[in-house]
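Before surveying the methods themselves, it helps to consider a single example record, giving the amino acid sequence and backbone structure tokens:
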Amino acid sequence: MNLIMLTVSVPPSRADLFTDWLLGQGWPGFTSWQGWGHSDRTDHLSLDEQIQGKQKRTLISLHMPKNHGEQLIAQMHQEFAGQDIHYWETAVLSAGSLNKNPDNKSH
């Protein structure tokens, strides 16, 4: 099975909306954290962000089979078209859990 890591970068003001949407779509688990986005695109940056040269972002990562990633990306395009959301996918060579609970399942 080909696994990917899909990482999505959203403005912090949209993070709860996006993670609630993911949960509503049935995605059982993901990781989120705060980071900074650096870009030469300044049209969407506040004056403070332009001066600092960076923008605060919330990053959300999910690992899944590649075909599920393609479906999720298509759903994101439908639900969040035109919004300041960036995503990328990378290959996952291995993934697992050290949890001995047999009910711990991946999506």
Notes: The first helix runs from residue 12 to 24. The domain at 3-92 is CATH 3.30.70.120 (Alpha-Beta Plaits). The helical segments are 12-24, 47-52, 66-79.
